[in-house]
Amino acid sequence: MLADIKVGDEVIMPSYTFVSTANAFTLRGAVPIFVDVRPDTFNIDESLIESAITERTRAIVPVHYAGVACEMDAIMMIAQQHNLLVIEDAAQGIMSTYKDRPLGSIGHLAALSFHETKNIISGEGGALLINDARFVERAEVIREKGTNRSQFFRGQVDKYTWVDRGSSYLPSDIIAAFLYAQMEEAELITQRRLGLWHQYHELLHYFEMRQILRRPIVPMECQHNAHMYYILLQSLEHRTKVIHHLKENGIHAVFHYVPLHSSPAGKRFGRPHGSMKNTDNASDQLLRLPLWIGMHGLEKNY
């Protein structure tokens, strides 16, 4: 709504993401244009974005998968050259950085998630981050059900009224208090998760050296938040066997997204641009391992 996305507009995004990334725009009548991901980070491949731009393109939506940053310098340069908005999907990226800049602080707009599956949680909900002053005033109106109520409370208008589209996007006081307590512990939560992530990484080096799996790749310019630890297996069949084996031993490990471009709604509302080979491979081969701050230390047992 804030980006003024209209029916028929196009928005470039990865297919390897959760449905919310696309729903935000299809609800306004826009068309998601799905671009393949990089084989190393599973973030949108910045080298493929420009060829997907048309006269209908309005925004680029990089998704920081697993809390590892997209190549934001290149993406921002492309957006500037083509007069496009960059809206960061930083749902998984709180406490992560790109070249020492917090994820969500680089694009024109960004979204964080506080869903129960994230590092910092309130059960449901999220946050809009605004990095372009052009959007601040209207964002406040949209947040207040389309009224200028906040201006009224500040004494800027003598009464408040309906001035724009909007809805109720406010968390309850109880949810806000729960979230605030989480944020007070954000550094400790992140460090605990990183400790577990690095234990996984060290233990699984043995298997990577024997080409049984591939561990996550984190570029040098990225500091991640240990949102998840995943491995890449050799095939869908291999992954299925590993999931079954882990389940038999009381370990709950799961795959991740069904790519949006191959989903029923994705075929209906969007379209892929070019090959989606890396996306399809990730969907078939990626396996997420348990990671939460209440886990005990991992033991070397193979």
Write a structural description.
With 302 residues, the chain is of the alpha/beta class. The protein folds into two domains: 10-183, Type I PLP-dependent aspartate aminotransferase-like (Major domain) (Aspartate Aminotransferase, domain 2); 186-289, Aspartate Aminotransferase, domain 1. The protein has helices spanning 19-26, 49-52, 72-82, 136-143, 149-153, 173-184, 186-203, 205-209, 236-248, 264-269, 277-285, and strands spanning 10-14, 31-35, 57-60, 85-89, 97-98, 101-102, 109-113, 126-130, 222-223, 229-232, 271-272, 286-289. Strands 8-7-4-3-1-2-11 form a seven-stranded mixed β-sheet. The radius of gyration is 20 Å and the shape is globular. The termini are far apart.
Helices and strands, with pairings:
Layout: E1 10-14, H1 19-26, E2 31-35, H2 49-52, E3 57-60, H3 72-82, E4 85-89, E5 97-98, E6 101-102, E7 109-113, E8 126-130, H4 136-143, H5 149-153, H6 173-184, H7 186-203, H8 205-209, E9 222-223, E10 229-232, H9 236-248, H10 264-269, E11 271-272, H11 277-285, E12 286-289
Parallel strand pairs: 1-2, 1-3, 2-11, 3-4, 4-7
Antiparallel strand pairs: 5-6, 5-9, 7-8, 10-12
